[in-house]
Amino acid sequence: MERLYIRMVRESFEPGRLDTAIRWCQRSVGARWIHFANRHLLHVVGYERVPPLDPAKSYVLASNHRSFFDLYVTGAFLMRQGLHHRMVFPVRSNFFYDSALGFLVNGSMSFFAMYPPLFRERSRQSLNLASLQEVVRLLQRGGTLTGVHPEGTRNQGPDPYTLLPAQSGVGRIIHQSRATVLPLFINGLGNNLVRQFSGNFLRTGSPVVLVFGEPLALDDLLAQPGGTRVYKQVSERLVTTITALGQEERAARARLGRESSAEWIHDP
Fold this sequence. Notes:
Layout: H1 2-11, H2 17-38, E1 42-45, E2 59-63, H3 70-80, E3 86-88, E4 91-92, H4 100-109, E5 117-118, H5 127-141, E6 144-148, H6 168-177, E7 180-187, H7 193-201, E8 208-212, H8 219-222, H9 228-256
């Protein structure tokens, strides 16, 4: 079943009507319902730092990881700003690739953005290298936006501003693909969809603050031969950058509590 589902999604990236239809659905359906579910809570800072996104190039969208929905909200915001790239977010294989219901949810809710699968079982860890190479392949062909978390897993600690140690997998993707990296910090999203939606519609939920940074400068590390040490250094620089953006988010959140209207916030 996993092999079938992986092959089906992989083939959907081939140029043609299916790929065009999925891109349209991600941009016109997915981005709209995500915006509708967060529009009263979302505040965006630093979007002017993001360069014009070339449809022929690929980008790595890298953020901290507090909620399952961090990258979906961010990707939806970018699509509302004109992004036309195909979005992919590596995801655990459990449920989304080992059950028919999971595959249906992947297709109907994210239009197969949850790809490629990553395996948590120790006996299958070697398969994750193939998944990382698949991400690199998609980035190198252009027209792809890949969302990643350099922490490697969801940070469930009490302090959202203290990130987990950097993992080398994201550094490998960036170093091998040479895609432009867009760092960001996001805070305020929960993991309970019902509570998140009701907080938005009733306007009682916590503000969701998204802070974009400048594209990550990596020329010195990209000039070095690839290897575990260099990949880890790339990820560590990314974590350092995202942590600094977190301090901007902290200040922006404090200002939101004091100002009824704020010109410094981008209207999503």
